[in-house]
Amino acid sequence: MRAILILGPAAALSACMATPEQQARTERNEAAGVLSPDGQSFGDGARLAGPARTCVPLNNIRNSRVLSDRVIDFSGPGRQTYRVVLNQPCPQLGFEQRFTYATSLSQLCAQDIITVLQGPGVMRGASCGLAPFQPIDPARR
């Protein structure tokens, strides 16, 4: 019985450990929110492509890609991509990789709030404020 109690936490801990590939992806995604010392590129290789914008028209957003609890890339027509680096981590955003937002305008703005969608259904999680939309040239994959 004691062996089960001792091994239980160890087994549970090993099940939570990330594979080297998962760890590398996590580190790369977290680096996506860090601007390089030259101020021209992000840690994932994406480069700045113009001044940040406070708002982006909704018809310029076709897709979103959550990179971490702080970084979301919004893709538009062509290769237009905007990176939003949240001021604070948004709990579970990187894990769930999905969110919702509501706006009465025809654009999404830095002061708008996103809400993480959790679980297999549509359970609402943390709500977090957006930040400015930075045009980027994504890193080549």
Describe the structure.
22% of the residues lie in helices and 30% in strands. A hairpin with a 5-residue loop joins strand 4 (71-75) and strand 5 (81-85). The chain is of the alpha+beta class. Mean pLDDT is 81; it is low at 1-15. It has three helices and ten strands. Strands 1-10-5-4-3 form a five-stranded antiparallel beta sheet, with no helix packed on it. It has helices spanning 2-16, 20-31, 93-96, and strands at 47-48, 55-57, 63-66, 71-75, 81-85, 99-101, 107-109, 113-118, 123-129, 134-137.
Provide a short characterization of the protein structure:
By secondary structure, the chain is of the alpha+beta class. Helices cover 22% and strands 30% of the residues.
Fill in the keyword field for this structure.
disordered N terminus, 141 residues, single chain, 5-stranded antiparallel sheet, alpha+beta, 3-stranded antiparallel sheet, 22% helix
Give the neighbour order of strands across the main sheet: 1-10-5-4-3
* Rg over CA atoms: 18 Å
The run of helices and strands is HHEEEEEHEEEEE
Cα shape? globular
